[in-house]
Amino acid sequence: MTRKSRHWLWLFMLIPIGIGLVRLRFDVEVLDLLPGKSPVVQGLKLYQQNFSNARELIVTIKSADAEQAESSARAITTALRAATNLVADANWQPPWLESPGQSAELVAFLWLNQPPDIFGQLTNRLAGENLTNILNEARDALATSLSPNEIALRGYDPYNLMQLPDGAMASTPSLGSGQEFFSSGDGTFRIVFVEATTELASYRECLAWLNSIKVIVANTRAAGQLADDVVVRYTGRPAFVAEIAGGMEHDMLASVGGTMVIIALLFWWAHRRWRPLLWLLTLLALILGDTTALGGLLFRTINVVSMGFAAILLGLAVDYGLVLYQEAQSDRNATAQKLRRDIAPSILWSAVTTAGAFLILNLSGLPGLAQLGSLVAIGVALAAVVMLFAYLPPLLGTRGELGQPPSEAISHQTQPAGRNAISFALNSPWVIWGITGLILLIAILVLAKERPAFDHTADALRPRNSPAYAALEEIKANLGRAQEPLWILVPGRSETEVARRLEQAKTVLTGAVSNQLIRSFTLATTLWPRPEYQQANRAAAEHLLRQKETLRNAALAHGFTSNSFALTENLFDTWQQALSQTNVFWPTNHSSHWVLSKLTARRPDELLALGLVYPATNISTAANSQLSTLNSQLFRDGILLSGWELLGASMFDLVKADLPKVLLPMLALLLISLWLAYRRFSEVVLSLGTLLFSGLCLYVVMDLAGWSWNLLNLMALPLLLGAGVDYSIHMQLALRRHGGDIRLVRHSIGRALFLCGGTTVAGFGSLSWSNNAGLASLGQVCSIGILCAMLTAIYLLPVWWRSIAGRKKIGR
Questions:
Q1: Which of 116, 86, 352 is nearest to 213 (CA)?
Q2: If we measure between CA atoms, which residue out of 519, 463, 599 comes closest to residue 181?
Q3: Pairing mode, if any, of strands 301-303 and 518-522?
Q4: Which of these, 151, 95, 158, lies nearest to 126 by C-alpha position?
Q5: What pLDDT score does 702 carry?
Q6: In this prediction, what percent of the chain has a pLDDT beyond 90?
Q7: pLDDT digits (tens, 9 = 90+) for 589-623
Q8: DSSP labels for 23-78?
Q9: CB 588 within 8 A of CB 96
Q10: Residues in Cβ contact with 113 at an 8 Å cutoff, skipping those fewer than 6 apart
Q11: Helices 39-50 and 621-635 meet at what angle, rounded to 10?
């Protein structure tokens, strides 16, 4: 192939990379990391899509003085409502308190959904002969009541139509109150609900919109409308999305940049050469960019948590370049082709096992982790090819860039006495076997006493040090919601189907209360429209509408003004509107929408009703098992029981169940790769022993550090199998090439592996500062595991090899 045709080939390869970059999108939804087949995940996604308003921001106001908190909430709301280009709606108190007349629509709707016998009783109560008694009773109530709310309401409702039958308002706030949604009992903590004018589809839109809201609040404070001691915080989806995406963007830049700096420092410390360092960093940047582009081509949307692949890939990809450079130092007369021929087997088998380990994460059942694994696997395969064919050729033309070969450094330098003693100890079989036995004894003693715990919660999916999450916890603490309820979601294709399923859910949950599995529950039964009742009540409603003027005249005759009939008139107008249409009637004004949006949702292809379930106690492992049984019972009827408290346990169980599906193929791949690399049983056993020994060391560190296994860092096990075995492959093949000369191997390939391990540990370790708790724990476990594997391969494995596998090889 001519040089010109090779150039055209490289240009042709840029086409898919360009398409991938154009297609690339970032997803900040944590639930997309989880398997969609899980009923708990399905329920959480339905809740997020339909009841956790994607456009709704929650602003919290905390002050030591109740009046100051109220005035601050009012001032912020007024300022936000004025920003009509940003805010569609803002509420600091129940909407029906600001517009009392709108409450009549919801009440009229609820009346129409009563059983016909209940609605018929209303018709009988408003019969002509009863009107005098009702109006006299209203006047007496106004004269004797000590309740301001009752006086205000009854003054505009002389026939007491706003008072629904017992139980009809069980799942809705009583009209005239509802402050429990907006204020703490002492009034020092308040909430403002803010809805954006746009959909806030991307995380950048969320971030820009949230920053604009914060500017408005800051201007309100600067204008003197907020006292200095008033604390304002933000939560809700826009805040979470902006925080997660911004945090992950910062984490990725910091981890990639930090890993690059560590790679540069380690290389410079070892070799003191600028040209190979700069060329290595250039190739790493190219590999990272190409992998991201290929990820965009294959997946189009990459979750921001999956972007953790970048730091991991840098730590793994640089290994191949470091190994090649170290071998070039050892044999200064070798050509690029000879070096490639000598080192290619260890690099290729290392890449196969590492890429295989990450690809097998696709069997884990966690889409986010599978995507991360696929991206790393693509990058590792790309890195092996790029480093083998592109790294050395530009450097071998200038041999001075390779520095002094290790063999010359060893022969011409006089080692200090202390270093000679250490070197002698590390080469002594008695010392190495003694260290091996001591570590095994410590591991047995530590693990016999206590093993790393298992975290069954969903904390691994939540951000660390999150102001938005802290604000949410503050809401729960101040509004008396210490125990977060579970959600029950009742879907259906029609109002009738949802109503039927609500009754089924009520029966099942009533039994769960009797069995003390749950403490209580609330369903949207009273808020849900009943088409058969609305149809059956049409005749009675028409009869009442014909009495409208009679009711008005009677009220005026008993001393009520025309304004006193306002709520009643609004209620009658709603019935008139409902009777004028043939389909199921839903209320539409602002107050009604605010109430209904909390417990009902309508989509073109599906209707949803929401309920709240309060477990008897905080969910334990045993209680979670019982709730899983309850969930299965409800799921058979098409009803979903979900919640963050259930998510952790259900996902952890899923990951544990999927772990053998991941580990067994990984072990099979590992054995095949090791056999093809060595063709010797003893060396295969030594590589597996190195991994097992490293795993024991990791367990000891986890136990001493107080770390626990969670649903994300459990996947470190297959990763460590694939990535950790590289060191034993490189070391044993080098021992073969150099006839078992431990000192020479340690100063050549061992030196390279030390740098490789350092960069890989840096890649994984940089994730420890991730804002995502699970990704951070995955980085911690993997970095310690890799460190253990690297140190074991460099300092213990050579002596093991000479004692077990190297005798015949050396003796030839």
A1: 86
A2: 599
A3: unpaired
A4: 158
A5: 87
A6: 11
A7: 888 888 888 888 888 888 999 888 888 765 555 55
A8: H-EEE--GGGGS-TTSHHHHHHHHHHHHTS-TTEEEEEEE-SSHHHHHHHHHHHHH
A9: no
A10: 526, 528, 529, 530, 533, 534
A11: 80
Nearest CA to 412 among 752, 795, 750, 747? 747
Structure tokens at 708: 């626990």
CA-atom Rg of the chain in angstroms:
35
Give 187-232 as a DSSP string. Answer: SSEEEEEEEESS---SHHHHHHHHHHHHHHHHHHHHTTSS-TT-EE
- DSSP label at residue 183: B
Strands (E), 635-737: 640-642
Q: How confident is the model at residue 425 (pLDDT cuts 50, 70, 90)?
A: low
Chain centre distance of CA 725: 30
Phi, psi of 209 (to 5 degrees): -65, -45
Q: Token pair 């080192």 is at which residue?
A: 343
Q: What are the tokens at 177? A: 């109150």
3-state SS class at 409: helix
What does the DSSP 8-state code read for residue 710? -
At which residue do the structure tokens 């398409």 appear? 19
Structure tokens at 196: 């954006």
Encode 448-497 in three state secondary structure.
HHCCCCECCCCHHHCECCCHHHHHHHHHHHHCCCCCCCEEEEEEECCHHH
CA separation for the pair 689, 608 (Å, rounded): 55
Q: Quote the tokens at residue 117.
A: 């016998």
Tokens of 560: 């009520």
Contact of 92 with 76, CB cutoff 8 Å: yes
For 726-755, b/e burial (b = at least 16 CB within 10 A) is bbbbbbbbbbbbeebbbebbbbbbbbbbbb
| Whether residue 508 has pLDDT greater than 60 | yes
Contact 757, 263 (CB under 8 A): no
Nearest to 80 by CA among 57, 63, 99, 64: 57
Q: What is the pLDDT of residues 162-191, one digit of tens each?
A: 877 765 555 444 444 556 678 888 889 999
Do 322 and 730 touch, CB atoms closer than 8 A? Answer: no
Contact 123, 539 (CB under 8 A): no
pLDDT digits (tens, 9 = 90+) for 190-228: 999 998 998 887 777 888 899 999 999 999 999 988 888
CB atoms within 10 A of CB 237: 21
Return the ∠ at Cα 151 (arms to 150 and 155), rounded to 5°: 115
Q: In the numeric block, which tokens belong to residue 263? A: 């790679």
Amino acid found at 375? L
Strands of 261-310, DSSP E = 301-303
Structure tokens at 21: 């970059």
Question: What is the pairing mode between strands 25-27 and 301-303?
Answer: parallel
The type of residue at 639 is I
Q: Any residues with CB less than 8 A from the CB of 610 and at least 6 apart, and which?
A: 47, 50, 51, 487, 488, 489, 490, 524, 598, 599, 600, 601
Quote the longest CA-to-CA distance of the chain: 121
What are the two backbone dihedrals, phi and then psi, of residue 99, each rounded to the nearest 5 degrees? -130, 75
Which amino acid is present at 641?
L
What residues are paired with 302 via a beta bridge?
Answer: 26
Residue type, 471: A
CB 762 within 8 A of CB 255: no
For residue 759, the one-letter residue type is T
Name 521's Cβ contacts closer than 8 Å, sequence gap at least 6: 488, 509, 512, 513, 611, 612, 613, 614
